[in-house]
Amino acid sequence: MTRNLLIIANDPPYGTERSWNAIRVAGALARRPEVEVRIFLLGDAVGCAVRGQKVPDGHYHLDRMISTVVHHGTGTGCCGTCLDARGLAEEQLVEGAHRSTLEQLTDWTLWADQVITF
Question: What is the reported pTM?
Fold first, then answer.
């Protein structure tokens, strides 16, 4: 039996570790054959999905982590209103992450057996 999990992240990509932990958990869950995971990025967390991030050597790259999670079949939605508020376009997102809506978040919430927020 497949379990459906939705992970919602709200924090910025760097400065706290909450979004990093959200994506780490999503990656661990996505590798389980009995689990289907979706990630929804709200607020400053939409910055996690911006490709080509420049970070110090030895620091984690959330864009690369999201790409890996997407490779495992995880849907990744980014709040369109939040992208607009930060001047970000869908073309700036990593492959597999998409501009999304509150309506899709609502649908995914109803789809999920469990919702985890960070």
Answer: 0.94
Length of the chain in terms of residues written: 118
Positions of E strands within 10-111: 35-41, 75-79, 97-100
**Which residues does residue 93 pair with via DSSP β-bridges, in sequence order?**
50
pLDDT tens digits, residue range 76-93?
999 999 999 999 999 999
Query: 71 with 92: CB under 8 angstroms?
Result: no
Amino acid, res. 20: W
Supply 108's token pair. Answer: 């995914």
Of 14, 18, 37, nearest in space to 27 by CA: 37
Report d(CA 115, CA 9) in Å as an integer: 11
| pLDDT tens profile 92-113 | 999 999 999 999 999 999 999 9
